[in-house]
Specification:
Layout: H1 2-38, E1 45-48, H2 53-59, E2 61-74, E3 77-90, H3 93-97, E4 103-116, H4 117-121, E5 128-133, H5 137-145, E6 160-169, E7 172-185, E8 188-198, H6 208-218, E9 220-222, E10 233-239, E11 242-255
Antiparallel strand pairs: 1-2, 2-3, 3-4, 4-11, 5-6, 6-7, 7-8, 8-9, 10-11
């Protein structure tokens, strides 16, 4: 009986090892394909989700595949994280592991680009140590109580952010706090300041004439380039110190027979 148990455990271990080995080979094949499809210099990280892998491989149907490329250069941006999640993927294992041309049929793809604060900082003259923070209704109400314009109350907090950095005025370093609206214009991310303060978030707002002057400095348009797989950007938000541009596309064919829908 003991020998039988040991044999079963060894067999189970071999099956798991074979499963992970086959998954690694398939992920490598998808990675090379995604490098060409997205236009990267190096192979991105690819993870085929779900266990066991071989069950999916036999059918050629995969629930989801994650593709990640970190700290890449996109246009004027120097350190962008690019991710894509492919869902309902049709890719026979024989094709993935074979030497011929490869094609993947994808039911839905979600593409995302994360723009870090350091990249955004280079586009705002005179600002250092920039932070990108989310903002909630309580913060907007507090800004109004401290003298901010009443129109702050109608800002959609899901499409807004607080930018905080430092600048030098008359030889002294001061903190700058900006409440800004985030919007997509012609597939580009645009930051539109609505409330600018010097000296911290609880400082009084600057006079309207000075605000109008500084608004030109803090109004920034960022071209994130194309989202993965020509996904059309539909959302812009602040998240964990970055601006996130995302979108979804459906019914894609990637690879040798690629006809990617816009």
């Amino acid at each position: 009986m003991r020998r039988l148990i040991i044999a079963v455990l060894v067999l189970a271990g071999l099956l798991v090892a074979a499963d992970f080995g086959a998954a690694a080979l398939a992920e490598s094949a998808v990675s090379r394909q995604m490098r060409e499809q997205i236009g990267l210099d190096d192979d991105p990280s690819v993870r085929i989700n779900g266990f066991p892998f071989l069950t999916q491989a036999i059918s050629g149907q995969y629930g989801s595949v994650d593709v990640v490329a970190n700290r890449i250069k996109v246009g004027e941006l120097k350190s962008v994280d690019v991710t894509a999640q492919l869902r309902e993927v049709d890719a026979p294992l024989s094709m993935l592991l074979g030497s011929g041309p490869k094609s993947l049929v994808v039911g839905e793809a979600e593409g995302t680009i994360r723009i870090p604060a350091k990249d955004l900082e280079t586009m705002i003259p005179g600002i250092e140590d920039l932070r990108i923070e989310t903002i909630d209704l309580a913060a907007l109400e507090a800004a109004m109580e401290d003298g901010g314009d009443e129109t702050l109350s109608v800002i959609d907090t899901e499409k807004a952010a607080r930018l905080v950095g430092t600048t030098t005025l008359m030889g002294k370093e001061v903190e700058v706090s900006v409440i800004a609206v985030l919007q997509l214009v012609d597939k580009k991310a645009q930051i539109v300041p609505r409330d600018i303060r010097l000296g911290g978030t609880d400082a009084p707002p600057l006079p309207a004439t000075i605000q109008r002057t500084l608004q030109k400095t803090f109004t920034v348009t960022v071209d994130p380039g194309s989202l993965p797989l020509k996904v059309v950007p539909i959302a812009l938000r602040a998240d964990n110190g970055a601006l996130v541009v995302s979108g979804v596309a459906e019914n894609l064919t990637l690879g040798a027979a690629a006809t990617t829908n816009p």
